[in-house]
């Protein structure tokens, strides 16, 4: 019997674990190690953050789902990996620390034949002074990165609405809280959902909304922007984004590295090297991401963390990490199999794999401060990569260790994204987009880097319907209900 | 209504050079019949990309 250990139960890890359990059956064991007791459909946290959904609607308990799937579920966080075993044990193992009530702090070594690292990111609030610290979110801003954060964000948002109803003008500042953030899309959704809710509450005229982000142009989204076919033109996402911001009367600051957050005020540095300050009454700033801080040790106990992980804490895979400057970047730099180059039985997927470099062109201020969006890994690519990795490992377990690996390069796959701009069955809107491929390939698609026959976007009520349907569809799939395998990632 | 979005433009400000939708384009965004048609079309387009990506 072989044992596959999956670290993390988010979109990528959950997809990998559930498909592996289905394909391997009871002859082999799948173990999931995740510190969370609940699964969270993160894209809908936006709606929790404005009071349009409850925490219970975007989360569910993992234990019964894994019990149904025959998965050995350990509510714990991974601390370290021993890919060669140790002096006492020949098999590789992961050291975990339980977070389960009643077993908090207890450690265990879980041996494995194959390992998938799908831990997702550490929300690195501590990277920006005042945004938070090692313990998480600070006191001056809110977040929608987790369901609990989103509940708190809504509580603060409702207080602002009450103040506006009493005649007190409020300033909303939404965006990214560091020069190296990703996930601009989530902040984009949040600012327009706030705007929509303010209209519904009848207090829009009492609010000033401002966007602040590390993108060098509006609509970059960490993918270097995209060109979409519209009215016979190949139109940049910059035009679409600026148009929407103007239509909804939202001002913006771009190319900004937020370097300090205080009560009611952020300080930032711009790409031109100038410094500025912006005041706010309510602010949601996305933190930068980092690896979760896993350590790795050789058989003799030597620390090999730098061999297994990149400096940002994400696991090295089959990517080209020495691609050099932007001019030398190629689509082929991006990983295909997500296998660790040192230990062939270790893989990483979702946000946990180390990308070779950003997608957007790297930029820095004259002071040397890097201000560049880091590459996003949204739900669809994360799910597809998780499934491909699970497929590779299952083939190796069932057919032998020379079975070919499955490939899922972000330079060869597209993504469908639906960014909510307000919830409402008849008055909601969302930007529905597809992008193909996610990582631009300027050799194959000169100019825009993407196939404009398969890259499009439009905003409207239809997009909202799709986002709402996807909410229910993906929770249905994650709960492994009837027909779950038929729903694509 | 017709000039509402144009009023958001600030001369030589951030948004002075962008395009803005007119009232008809904005109306279509929440027109149920038009959006039902777009719903079908967008779904087909997305399914094509999903199929190409697996």
CATH third-level topology of the domain at 3-123 and 289-365 and 374-399 in chain A: FAD/NAD(P)-binding domain
**Quaternary structure state of the chains depicted:** heterodimer
Number of DSSP-assigned strands of chain B: 0
Shape of chain A: globular
Fraction of residues in H or I helices of chain A: 10-25%
Ends distance of chain A: 29 Å
- The CATH superfamily of the domain at 3-123 and 289-365 and 374-399 in chain A is FAD/NAD(P)-binding domain
Largest interface, C-beta closer than 8 angstroms, per-chain residues: A-B, 34 and 31 residues
The number of helical segments of chain B is 2
Helix content of chain B: 40-55%
Unreliable spans of chain A are none
Percent strand of chain B equals under 5%
Tell me the span between the first and last alpha carbons of chain B: 45 Å
The overall pLDDT of chain B, averaged over residues, is 91
**Which spans of chain B of ≥5 residues are poorly predicted at pLDDT below 50?**
none
Question: Structural class, from secondary structure content of chain B?
Answer: mainly alpha
Give a short synopsis of this structure.
The complex is a heterodimer of chains A (489) and B (54). Chain A is of the alpha/beta class and 489 residues long. Chain A contains ten helices and 26 strands.
What layout of secondary structure does this protein have?
The complex is a heterodimer of chains A (489) and B (54).
Chain A (H helix, E strand, L loop, with lengths): L2 E5 L3 H14 L4 E6 L3 E3 L4 H4 L6 H4 E3 H8 L2 E11 L10 E6 L8 E5 L2 E4 L4 E2 L8 E2 L2 E2 L9 H19 L4 E7 L7 H17 L6 E6 L14 E4 L2 E4 H11 L3 E3 L2 E7 L2 E6 L4 E5 L2 E5 L2 E2 L4 E2 L8 H4 L37 E3 L30 H21 L15 E6 L9 E6 L20 E5 H18 L11
Parallel strand pairs in A: 1-2, 1-8, 2-5, 5-22, 8-23, 12-13, 12-20, 13-16
Antiparallel strand pairs in A: 3-4, 5-6, 6-7, 9-21, 10-11, 14-15, 17-18, 18-19, 24-25, 25-26
Chain B lengths: L22 H7 L2 H22 L1
């Amino acid at each position: 019997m072989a044992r596959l250990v999956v670290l993390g139960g988010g979109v990528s890890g959950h997809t990998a674990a559930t498909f592996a359990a289905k394909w391997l059956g009871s002859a082999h064991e799948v173990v999931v190690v995740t510190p969370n007791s609940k699964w969270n459909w993160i894209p809908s946290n936006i709606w929790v953050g404005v009071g349009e959904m409850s925490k219970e609607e975007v989360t569910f308990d993992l234990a019964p789902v894994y019990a149904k799937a025959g998965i050995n579920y350990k509510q714990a966080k991974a601390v370290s990996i021993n890919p060669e075993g140790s002096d006492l044990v020949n098999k590789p193992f992961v050291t975990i620390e339980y977070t389960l009530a009643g077993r908090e702090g207890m450690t265990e070594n879980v041996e494995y034949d194959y390992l998938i690292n799908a831990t997702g990111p550490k929300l690195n609030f501590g990277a920006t002074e005042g945004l938070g610290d090692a313990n998480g979110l600070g006191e001056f801003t809110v977040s929608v990165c987790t369901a609990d954060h989103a509940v708190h964000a809504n509580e603060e948002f409702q207080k602002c609405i009450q103040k506006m109803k009493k005649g007190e003008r409020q300033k909303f500042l939404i965006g990214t809280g560091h020069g190296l953030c990703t996930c601009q899309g989530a902040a984009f959704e949040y600012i327009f959902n706030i705007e929509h809710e303010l209209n519904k509450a009848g207090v829009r005229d009492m609010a000033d909304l401002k966007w602040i982000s590390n993108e060098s142009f509006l609509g970059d989204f960490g993918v270097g922007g995209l060109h979409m076919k519209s009215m016979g033109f190949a139109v940049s996402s910059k035009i679409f984004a600026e148009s929407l911001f103007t239509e909804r009367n939202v001002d913006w600051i771009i190319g900004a590295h937020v370097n300090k957050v205080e009560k009611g005020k952020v300080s930032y540095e711009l790409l031109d090297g100038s410094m500025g300050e912006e005041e706010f009454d309510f602010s949601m700033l996305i933190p930068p991401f980092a690896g979760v801080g896993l350590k790795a040790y050789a058989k003799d106990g030597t620390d090999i963390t730098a061999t297994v992980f990149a400096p940002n804490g994400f696991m090295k895979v089959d990517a080209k990490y020495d691609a050099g400057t932007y001019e030398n970047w190629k689509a082929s730099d991006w990983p295909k199999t997500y296998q660790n180059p040192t230990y062939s039985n270790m893989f990483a997927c979702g946000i946990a794999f180390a990308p070779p470099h950003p997608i957007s062109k790297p930029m820095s201020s004259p002071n040397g401060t890097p201000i560049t969006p880091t590459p996003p890994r949204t739900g669809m690519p994360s799910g597809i990569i998780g499934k491909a990795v699970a497929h590779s490992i299952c083939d190796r377990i069932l057919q032998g260790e020379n079975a070919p690996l499955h490939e899922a390069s972000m330079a060869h796959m597209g993504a469908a994204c639906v960014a909510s701009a307000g919830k409402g069955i008849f008055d909601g809107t969302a930007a529905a987009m597809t992008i193909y491929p996610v990582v631009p390939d300027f050799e194959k698609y000169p100019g825009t880097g993407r196939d404009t026959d398969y890259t499009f976007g439009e905003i409207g009520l239809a997009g909202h319907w799709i986002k709402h349907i996807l909410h229910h569809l993906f929770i249905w799939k994650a709960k492994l209900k009837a027909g779950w395998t038929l729903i694509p990632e | 209504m017709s000039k509402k979005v144009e009023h958001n433009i600030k001369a030589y400000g951030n948004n002075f050079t962008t395009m803005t939708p007119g009232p008809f384009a904005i109306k279509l965004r929440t027109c149920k019949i038009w959006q039902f048609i777009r719903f079908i079309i967008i779904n087909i387009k997305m399914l094509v990309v999903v199929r190409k990506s697996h």
